């Protein structure tokens, strides 16, 4: 039996730091509100004209290739999870593949909002377990600043830009890597969290621009409630069927949307916060990138055999949890 493991991580965040002080000069908000309600002090923004999600994804993948020493010609596939693709088509993954100069790979985008990284890691794991593929780059990347309305104080403080990439490979070693997962999508989320325009229903027009329909809309309280319930129930289910508890879980790695959501999930799981990976304060919500960015920043804390539960919730609604043994 082949098990799928992460053999390296690369990450990239833009240099530009948008802090709460600067935001409070753009809209009617302040550091105290944002810190107490959301727990974000600053976020990174890709400000350079003409650069999109693929730029950050490529930077993360380049670091990954350098760190792992993997031969670019040995990569079988590139999967980019994003909700902020460079273009309607071609896929962001194909742009990344081209810029990296990969010759023997295929590429596709994975569209599952904030769950994108977890869903696509699972799909990549299945591809590796099949034995037909040996090396797959899985990237979570989002340029959320491209869909955030910087005139809307209820959303503009929440999001940032970033990307992180992992290399997924096979091993015959037992009891390691992607161990289990539980994912669901319930389709109820459309009215509560969406970017209405730009797709095939609401094609670009003066109307969509005038009504700011190309920006992210969310009903924060509803999203908050669903996020807490789904992520904690999904983690509890994964924990129960794998005999995991607060003593043998090393980290829960949650999607980073709001520190209060993360704390509520930890409380429901009866886990102390030092067993929860948190980086929301300096990166904000980078959608598909939050979980791999947290792994990238905290890799030095992980030891072989550590039990991780990763969990996410996002537009759709999509949600789930997966169990990974490091
Ligand atoms: N600064 C100051 N005041 C603000 C701000 C701000 N940035 N934003 C909202 N307020 C005000 C509101 O106008 C409201 O004022 P009012 O009472 O006079 O009407 C008051 O603060 C309370 O607003 P609520 O929306 O009730 O605040 P809440 O505590 O629910 O926090 C938040 C809002 C942060 C959006 C929260 O609901 C949340 O985090 N929801 C989940 C968001 C999420 O997870 N989204 C993404 C998931 S999917 C993905 O990652 C793409």
TrEMBL record:
Query: Per UniProt, which keywords does this protein have?
Result: Acyltransferase, Cytoplasm, Fatty acid biosynthesis, Fatty acid metabolism, Lipid biosynthesis, Lipid metabolism, Multifunctional enzyme, Transferase
Q: Name one Pfam family in it.
A: ACP_syn_III
Q: Which reaction(s) does its UniProt entry say it catalyses?
A: malonyl-[ACP] + acetyl-CoA + H(+) = 3-oxobutanoyl-[ACP] + CO2 + CoA
- What enzyme class is recorded for this protein? transferase
Q: What is its EC number?
A: 2.3.1.180
Enzyme active site = 114, 255, 285
Q: Where is the Beta-ketoacyl-[acyl-carrier-protein] synthase III N-terminal domain?
A: 108-187
Q: Where is this region: ACP-binding?
A: 256-260
The record's listing under HAMAP family reads: FabH (MF_01815)
Q: Name the PANTHER family on file.
A: 3-OXOACYL-[ACYL-CARRIER-PROTEIN] SYNTHASE 3, BETA-KETOACYL-[ACYL-CARRIER-PROTEIN] SYNTHASE III
Q: What is this protein called?
A: Beta-ketoacyl-[acyl-carrier-protein] synthase III
- Organism this protein belongs to: Xylanibacter caecicola
């Amino acid at each position: 039996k082949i098990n799928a493991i992460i053999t390296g991580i690369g990450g990239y965040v833009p240099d530009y730091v948008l802090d709460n002080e600067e935001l409070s000069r753009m809209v009617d908000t302040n550091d105290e509100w944002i810190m107490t309600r959301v727990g974000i002090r600053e976020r990174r923004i890709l400000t350079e004209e003409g650069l999109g999600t693929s730029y950050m994804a490529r930077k993360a993948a380049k670091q990954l290739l350098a760190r792992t020493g993997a031969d670019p010609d040995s990569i079988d596939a590139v999967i980019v999870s994003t909700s902020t693709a460079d273009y309607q088509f071609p896929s962001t993954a194909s742009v990344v593949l081209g810029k990296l100069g990969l010759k023997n790979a295929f590429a596709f985008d994975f569209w599952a909002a904030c769950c994108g990284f977890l869903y696509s890691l699972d799909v990549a794991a299945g591809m590796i377990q099949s034995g037909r593929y040996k090396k797959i780059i899985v990237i979570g990347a989002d340029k959320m600043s491209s869909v955030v309305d910087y005139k809307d104080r209820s959303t503009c403080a929440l999001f940032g830009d970033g990307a992180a990439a992992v290399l997924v490979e096979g091993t015959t070693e037992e009891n390691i890597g992607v161990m289990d997962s539980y994912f669901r999508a319930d389709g109820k989320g459309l009215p509560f969290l969406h970017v209405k325009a730009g797709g095939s229903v609401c094609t670009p027009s003066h109307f969509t621009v005038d009504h700011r329909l190309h920006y992210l809309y969310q009903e924060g309280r509803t999203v908050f409630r669903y996020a807490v319930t789904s992520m904690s129930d999904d983690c509890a289910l994964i924990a129960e069927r794998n005999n995991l508890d607060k003593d043998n879980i090393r980290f829960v790695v949650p999607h980073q949307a709001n520190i209060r959501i993360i704390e509520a999930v930890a409380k429901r799981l009866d886990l102390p916060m030092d067993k929860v990976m948190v980086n929301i304060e300096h990166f904000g919500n980078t959608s598909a990138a939050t979980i791999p960015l947290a792994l990238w920043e905290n890799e030095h804390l992980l030891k072989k055999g550590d039990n991780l539960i990763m969990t996410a919730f996002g537009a759709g609604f999509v949600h789930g949890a997966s169990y990974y043994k490091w």
